[in-house]
Write a structure and sequence with these properties.
homodimer, 261 residues, alpha+beta, 3-stranded antiparallel β-sheet, 10 helices, DNA-binding
DNA sequence: CCGCTTTGTTTCAAATAGCGGAACCTGGTT
DNA sequence: AACCAGGTTCCGCTATTTGAAACAAAGCGG
């Protein structure tokens, strides 16, 4: 569907395409299935799968010759998560907020105009709801997404807007760039964003951006609930706690001035 | 240090080596640092970094030209985690166990003789302790590790043993293959493994394997505590609950007989 | 039991993509 | 200005990758 790949550069690009294809399947895939999805030359695909497999990026199930993503990816991602995102710093604050409010808290960042969830703390009632670390979602119809978009600099915002699908998920979904810009202006004023069942019916949330000293959004934090439990006003009442958390995280993130000897 | 890479195959192999090198640094690295770590030709390294960067596997910080792991890895890993591991199935049971026992629960699997943590539920007292999804650890001195080793078939066990470092972490660490084999025999009998402060002083745990119908270990579950809170006997008392969880997970894993229409 | 299809693996000459030494920038330091 | 360190680009050489086609190995239907 959406390929983050600009223009396939060389062998490595192709290999990553294959990896992505396996990922896209979301289940073990047979050689011939992959061959069918894209118009790859047989031998080429075979060789790439071979290479990826003995690199641990893929695992081949000998039983019925299917390929699935390898655990090496999980290892690499852990290091990406802990060394290249705000998640490890934000962690304790997310904990605290979730415990204080007794609701589900999400930590997310923006990647190519999409929301990428970095962490989550469930309420003690772990109501089944999608999103976990590594999961991606739309920006234009989620609390965290809008909170970040609202504080994006002009240029970045424009390219992010172009990446929005504006699909209609619920009757409340914002489905045009114009309407979204209005909403973002309001969010900028309030410093808070709401999801009024715009993504999933019955699911509402309040979100706030985590901003760098320069003002640009580094991520966002949201408190999610369901319409069965809370009304929007109830969530709004949690705003101060939420903003305390986000500013605390910003502060913790700041000390970009400590080289270690 | 330890390269899971067997013999570098082609360009893709080299690219993944570079990726691994960035990961190994655990922080943003400058071009010259990478150049120093391995004896790569300048131009080659440059090109590979370039490729990886515009593939989203790396991100280049324009500010001071450093490279760090890209978020695309986190996305891919999420799909690996949710489509190629037992984690999504085990999740609810891990939740329940952690809630029931009020202690930290870990879900792990074995990868190349090392323990790879797949999930974790903290006790409400989130005592800082390492290990999270994606983190790797030693097998010979952890509860989950030993629980899985104990039920490995002959051949797999031998190769796993060869991968053990047998470093001494604490006075209680098992430091020889012979001693470990004795321990594994006991674990096989009991169906349960203990970590008696073998990895970290003050940290103890009880663990049980999650086994396939064939008997081979698919993963392991552990309940961790500290010597300040529990003695080994206290943990042993939790054994039945733990084993209920592992057998439940095994059962949930079984229905390999439901094709969807 | 035997052709026939489907799926996966290997070969090999041709072409291309990657290689890497060396030259070349660029910005900071002496 | 001369120097230097870190980074980027050039470019001819060759190792790697390429992919059509031949080959193996399962199914399968008659």
């Amino acid at each position: 569907m959406n390929a983050p790949t600009g223009h396939s550069d060389g062998t490595v690009g192709k290999a990553l395409d294959v990896l992505e294809a396996v990922a896209a399947a979301g289940r073990p895939v047979r050689f011939s299935e992959l061959l069918a999805t894209k118009r790859w030359p047989k031998a080429t695909l075979y060789r790439l799968l071979q290479t990826l497999t003995n690199q641990g990026m893929l695992v081949q199930d000998a039983r019925e010759g299917t390929y699935r993503l390898g655990l090496r990816l999980v290892q690499l991602a852990h290091r990406a998560w802990s060394s290249a995102t705000i998640a490890p710093v934000a962690g304790p604050f997310v904990d605290r907020l979730a415990a204080t409010l007794g609701r589900t808290v999400h930590l997310a960042c923006l990647d190519h105009g999409q929301v990428l969830y970095l962490d989550k703390r469930s309420a003690r009632t772990p109501l089944p709801m999608y999103s976990d670390a590594g999961k991606v979602g739309p920006a234009y119809c989620t609390g965290v997404g809008k909170a970040m978009l609202a504080f994006l600099p002009e240029a970045a915002l424009r390219s992010a807007l172009r990446a929005q699908a504006f699909d209609t998920h619920t009757p409340a979904t914002i489905t045009s760039a114009e309407a979204l810009l209005d909403e973002l202006a309001q969010i900028r004023d309030a410093g808070l964003a709401f999801d009024r069942e715009e993504h999933e019916p019955g699911i509402i949330c309040i979100a706030a951006p985590i901003r760098a000293a320069t003002g640009e959004p580094l991520g966002a934090l949201s408190v999610t609930s369901s319409t069965l439990r809370d009304r929007l006003e109830d969530l709004a009442a949690l705003g101060p706690d939420l903003m305390t958390a986000t500013t605390d995280i910003s502060a913790a993130l700041h000390p970009w001035a400590h080289p270690d000897p």
